[in-house]
């Protein structure tokens, strides 16, 4: 059951931010980061998404620690899940024109809450490719190892590209972030599912 919880948490996170992002007035998924969905009148949806999905992934990760192929992999996945929860507890500041009335760019000064959100986000985007890299050496079966290794490289590069896009206030910031999130969370959901079905 714990592995199914992890799979559901990873899949739910992507589903919720995609649907909420495309249906929310004044929010541009191509430009705005996923975290901006935690702002505004419907912000509680993404806040809950961070907390519920992160908690479910942490539960699944503990299953990897005690029942999976690698204790280290499970620990890093648990760190990822807890950082996702923290990303929901601490929201980013309004910026990039969202919510309406927010500055178009990024302010020079940030609130403590925003800085904590940034720290949590850094852990999220560094721990996931690290987990994939560990999986490349510890998961059973050549296909899983190859896919995990390739994903680790892609995620590390994608995180760097997202950082550059953030600094440049790219109009495609949200699109670049989603190009990192969707395959990363998809790998998590697939791995948890495989573990639930007996991968060991």
List keywords for this structure.
single chain; about 200 residues; mainly alpha; 6 helices
Proportion of residues in extended strands: under 5%
Overall residue-averaged pLDDT value? 96
Computed structural class? mainly alpha
**Rg result:** 17 Å
Largest sheet properties: none
Name the helix and strand elements from N-terminus to C-terminus, one letter apiece. HHHHHH
Domains, number: 1
Q: What oligomeric arrangement do these chains adopt?
A: single chain
- The portion of residues assigned to helices is over 70%
Query: What is the end-to-end distance?
Result: 15 Å
Q: pLDDT under 50 segments (min length 5)? A: none
Helical run tally: 6
Instruction: Give the CA-based shape.
Output: globular
Number of strands: 0
InterPro entries: DUF998 (IPR009339)
Transmembrane segments: 45-66, 71-90, 120-139, 146-163, 175-199
Protein name: DUF998 domain-containing protein
Keywords: Membrane, Transmembrane, Transmembrane helix
Explain what you see.
This protein has 200 residues and is mostly helical. It has one domain. Helix content is 72%, strand content 0%. The chain contains six helices and no strands. Helix 2 runs antiparallel to helix 3, helix 4 runs antiparallel to helix 5 and helix 5 packs antiparallel against helix 6. The longest helix has 27 residues. The radius of gyration is 17 Å and the shape is globular. The mean pLDDT is 96.
């Amino acid at each position: 059951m714990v592995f199914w919880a992890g799979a559901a948490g990873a899949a739910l996170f992507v589903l919720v931010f995609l649907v909420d992002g495309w249906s929310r007035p004044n929010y541009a998924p191509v430009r705005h980061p996923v975290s901006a969905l935690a702002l505004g009148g419907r912000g509680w949806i993404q806040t809950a998404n961070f907390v519920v999905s992160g908690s479910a992934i942490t539960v699944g990760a503990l299953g990897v620690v005690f029942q999976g192929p690698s204790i280290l992999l499970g620990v890093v996945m648990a760190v990822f899940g807890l950082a996702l929860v923290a990303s929901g507890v601490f929201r980013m500041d309004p910026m990039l024109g969202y919510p309406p009335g927010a500055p178009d760019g990024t302010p020079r000064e940030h609130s403590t809450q925003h800085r904590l959100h940034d720290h949590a986000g850094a852990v999220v985007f560094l721990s996931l490719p690290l987990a994939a890299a560990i999986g490349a050496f510890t998961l059973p079966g050549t296909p899983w190892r190859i896919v995990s290794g390739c994903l680790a490289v892609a995620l590390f590069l994608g995180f760097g590209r997202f950082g550059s896009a953030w600094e440049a206030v790219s109009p495609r910031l949200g699109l670049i972030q989603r190009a990192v999130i969707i395959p990363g969370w998809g790998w998590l959901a697939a791995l948890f599912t495989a573990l639930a079905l007996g991968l060991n």
